[in-house]
Amino acid sequence: MIREIGKENSVFNRFLSELRDIDVQADSMRFRRNLERMGEIFAYEISKTFEYTSRKITTPLGTSVMSLPAEEPVLATILRAGLPLHHGLLNFFDRADCAFVSAYRKYEKDEHFIIKLDYISSPGIDNRILIVSDPMLATGGSIVASLTGLYEKGEPKHTHVVCVLASQEGIAHINKLFSLKDITIWIGAVDDELTARAYIVPGLGDAGDLAFGKKDD
Hints:
It is a single chain. The protein has a single domain, classed as Rossmann fold, CATH 3.40.50.2020. Helices cover about 30% and strands about 35% of the residues. It has six helices and twelve strands. It has helices spanning about 10-20, 30-45, 85-90, 140-150, 170-175, 205-210, and strands at about 1-5, 50-60, 60-70, 75-80, 95-105, 115-120, 130-135, 135, 160-165, 185-190, 195, 200. The strands form three sheets. Strands 1, 4, 5, 6, 7, 8, 9 and 10 form an eight-stranded mixed sheet that branches. A two-stranded antiparallel sheet has the order 2-3. Helix 1 (about 10-20) packs antiparallel against helix 2 (about 30-45) and helix 2 (about 30-45) packs across helix 3 (about 85-90). The radius of gyration is 18 Å and the shape is globular.
């Protein structure tokens, strides 16, 4: 299932427009904060899909019956670009367990690259809700490698993949490899093109560099 948040008119698109804007995105603090706020919006929307149970809450003047989430998710993110988006999700799912994946593009000759998966730190995810966040879903290689590694920790009840921007190619890649898995892909917007270096066009550039500074390749 694909859920594209940006198709509906909301303040979400203001944050996305600022992420794309070459003048605004020069402010790395604002770039990180916009990713965080978008993570909060994604969290709110995802929370509507959870199972809920009724609980009696005691107030200073009486009692109130409230519907509360029946369980807490596991939040996983891909270092380093995913950290602000992860933080936004964690602001809302503040009782969640967290997982972290070290995955990156290792470039070889002629712009070709492979996805290197160095490390995963994760709790058990068997029969739990798993939410995996990464700002950009370009070829889908990083998400595929991360999901493959995380699924070695167990079989989640449901997986939510959260990305600010995605390409059609990346979405198709995930759907092809995980067609038998129970997965929902949450996206801010879908762009059609990829460059020779597999960057999304019009996209927004390198989310990790814009959030945390340029790295030495």
